[in-house]
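#help-structures
NK: newbie question, is this the right format to request a structure? protein is Rhamnose mutarotase
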Amino acid sequence: MSVPHTKRICQIIKLKPSAEAEYRAIHAQVWPGVLAALERAHIVDYSIHYYPSLQLLIATMKYTGSDYEADMKKVAEDPETQRWWKVTDGMQESFVEGAEGSGKDTPWWTELEEVFRFDGKP
């Protein structure tokens, strides 16, 4: 059995303190079209964690496709995802200089470098 290549991704962004309740509420019922776009883009095992003392959102996911940039472009072109980002981007503050929102040329979330991994025994 062939196992697809997996790219692990970790990203951070700042959540505006005034938006915490709304952010939690919208993520309790993510729009089905947004999830479908992620699935079509080969994104799996996606989670977002919150670190309240620094207002950090920390997202982790795995990409199992073969062309990450092309798949992310398709996500950015998805109309329902674009509507979702219009709602959620307003709740966030990017750390990336010049960032104007999700799906643009300049990344909205900051991607973090992996410095350690332990996969355990296969």
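mod (FA): yep, format's fine, and the tokens are attached above. The chain has four helices and five strands.
NK: thank you!
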